[in-house]
Protein: GNAT-like C-terminal domain-containing protein
Organism: Victivallis lenta
Amino acid sequence: MNLTEFLKDGGFSPEVGELLAPWWREDPALETMPEFLDGGFFREYEPLLGLRESPASRVDALVAEVKKHPALRIYANLLDRWLLGGELGPDGARLPLPVGRLGEEGAGLFSLLLALAALPRIRKSQAELGLPESCWRGVAGWIAGTVTIYKAAHDGFAGTNLQQIHWLRFSIERRLFRVGRFEYLVHTVPDWVPAVYRSRADGGVLALCRDDWRIDGGGFRVEEGGERTFLEWDGSMLTGTPIDPASGRALPGVRRTIDLEVYEPVLTPHEWVPSVHIPGGGGMTAELAGASLREAAAFFRKYFKKEIRAFVCDSWILNPAWMELLPESNLAAFMRELYLFPRTPYPQAGLFFVFGRSDGDFASYPADTSLRRAFHRLYNAGEPFRTGGMFVLTADLDRWGSGIYRSR
C-alpha cells in the first residue's frame, strides 16, 4: 500500500501524509494484524487497569473495524515500532490518533491497546533482572493514569494519548522502575539540581544555586534577565546564592560562604541519582511517599548493587503555590518533607495532567476539584503556572514525617 492509499483507507488528512512521507516504506508485513489489537489481549491485561467500567465490548468493535482497513493495521505496526520499539520515526508528539476512521472513542482505545502492548515486553525485560512482579504490574497503574487524563478531555471515553506512550520505553529499556507509589528513572545528577552540601559538624544540609542560573526578585528561576547567580571557590571557601528549602526559592541578593573543610559535597557527577516520577491515581499520602522512597533505596541496593544517596524530582506537582492554596492536601504534606528548589518557568505546567489538555481558553476549563480550583485561583490572580524541583537525601529518610529540612 502506498502512502496515498494509506491516507485514504485510514481517513487521514494530507497533513498526516506530509508528516509520514520521510519515513514511509511499503512493506506487506506491516498489514498483518498486531497481536495487541485483539480482544483477548485486552481482556488479559484489562484487570490490571482497575477501570470502573469495562470497554471490552467497544474494543471488540474496534478490532472488527481494524480488520476491515489495512491502513489501520499498518499504522498500528508503525506506531509500535516508533513509539515502543525504538525505531527512528517522526516526532511522536505530532502523531495523530486515527480519529477519521475510528472516531474519538475508537481512536482512544486504539492507542490504549498500543500502550498495553508494552506490558509483556516489560514483564520479560524485568524478569531477566530478577525483579519482583510488582514492578511491571505497577506500569499498568501508570497506564491507568493515562486513561484518566484521556477521559478528562474526551467526554469520559477510555483511551490514552499517543504523546504519552514513549514513556513506556524507559521501562522496556530497564531505565524506569515502579517501586511502591512512585516511579524512578535512572540517571546521574541532572544539571537542574543545585549544588548540595552537608555540614560535617551538625549534619545540616545546604543547597546553593549553580553558577549562572538567573533568578527573579521572588527567587524563582527565569530564562533571561533577573539576577545572575555565582558559585565561586577560592580554594577553601565556597560562596553562592542559598536556596530556602521550605519555599523552594533562591534568596536574591544573599550570599552564603561555607568552608569546605566543614561542608562536604553530597553528590558526585558519576553516581546514580534517580528522579522521582509520580503516576496518577491519587492516594499520594506522605506516608506512602516516604515508604516508596525507602523501598526504592533498598531496591537499587538489592538488584543493582547501587547505593543511592539522593532522589530528585522536577514537576508541576512541586509548585510551591500548592502549599499555600492547598495546605491540607497530600501534595503540601509531601512537599514539607523535601528540600525544594526553583526551576525555570513553564507556562502550561500541569494543565495536561490535571485537565487532559493544554489548549484553548483556560478560563473555560472546569473547576470541579480542589486542585483544579487551585489552578483557577492562580490564573485569576495573574500568577504563572510553575514547575518546581526537589531533592531528598536517603540518609535523611529515617526522619521522614518530621519536616526533614525544616527542623534544624
Notes: The longest strand covers residues 310-315. The chain is about 40% helix and 15% strand. The chain has two domains: 3-163, 175-346+386-408. The CA atoms of residues 66 and 72 lie 6 Å apart.
